[in-house]
């Protein structure tokens, strides 16, 4: 694994009044790594990601993303990353081509670059026959693939994927992970949240959040050995029980 740190988090905390949603988490993520960020609903994952992508200010602690401080240079963080939300973020009433052009403009690409990227993306996804159709006509799996590809338009150093395969069938999930692997191979860092524990096995390393804290962080293989279990789901269950 490349040892160049692309995300550095030190004692990052987010409080809402008397409630601590993220409680002093610390970790590093490396260039080209597929980093799994796991936890049950309410564990603090979404709050942590909002801080890392520059849309929520930490109460205390530090985080550097692509070399920029999330507290003082949030706009530079946003320009350096790609983001795909759990909820499909393309515009249903625009065509595939129009969506790509629109987001290319948001990312600040030139017209020539947008044209080049649009042609390449449509070819890579084999969408030539439907490029001028409204996005809402696409099956969910294809929408997710398109959304991921658009998040990569401006060639970000890091892409945050929040539950990217939610609601899609197993075959499409596997195809989506092949796209993730291909992108990591190019040196892009993929920061992935998922509630599918089998998908944790595809990550280089995973962190597991329980009640605002990171309770485990290592490769899936090492975590299974440490807790003497056969699956990441069993690791997760053991950690949850320990905290209770």
Automatic annotation (TrEMBL):
Membrane topology designation: Multi-pass membrane protein
Sorted UniProt keywords: ATP-binding, Membrane, Nucleotide-binding, Transmembrane, Transmembrane helix, Transport
PANTHER family in the cross-refs: ABC TRANSPORTER G FAMILY MEMBER 20 ISOFORM X1, ATP-BINDING CASSETTE, SUB-FAMILY H, MEMBER 1
Gene Ontology CC terms: membrane
GO molecular function, one term: ATP hydrolysis activity
Protein's name in the database: ABC transporter
Pfam families hit by this protein: ABC_tran
Keyword Ligase: no
Organism listed in the record: Flavobacterium laiguense
């Amino acid at each position: 694994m490349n040892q160049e740190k692309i995300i550095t988090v030190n004692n990052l905390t987010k409080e809402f009044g008397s409630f601590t949603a993220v409680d002093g988490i610390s970790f590093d993520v490396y260039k080209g790594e597929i980093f799994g960020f796991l936890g049950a609903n309410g564990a603090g994952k979404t709050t942590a990601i909002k801080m890392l992508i520059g849309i929520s200010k930490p109460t205390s602690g530090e985080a550097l993303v692509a070399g920029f401080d999330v507290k003082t240079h949030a706009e530079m963080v946003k320009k350096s990353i790609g983001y795909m939300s759990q909820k499909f973020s393309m515009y249903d009433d625009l065509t595939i081509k129009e969506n790509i052009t629109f987001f290319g403009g948001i990312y600040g690409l030139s017209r020539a670059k947008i044209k080049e990227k649009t042609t390449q993306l449509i070819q890579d996804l084999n969408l030539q026959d439907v490029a001028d159709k409204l996005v809402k006509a696409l099956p969910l799996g294809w929408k997710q693939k398109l959304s991921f590809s658009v998040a990569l338009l401006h060639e970000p150093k890091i892409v945050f994927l929040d539950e990217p395969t939610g609601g899609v069938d197993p075959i499409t999930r596997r195809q989506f992970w092949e796209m993730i692997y291909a992108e990591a191979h190019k040196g892009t860092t993929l920061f992935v949240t998922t509630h599918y524990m089998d998908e944790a096995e595809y990550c280089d390393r995973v962190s597991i959040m329980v009640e605002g804290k990171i309770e485990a962080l290592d490769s899936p293989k090492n975590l299974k050995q440490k807790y003497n279990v056969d699956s990441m789901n069993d690791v997760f269950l053991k950690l949850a029980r320990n905290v209770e």
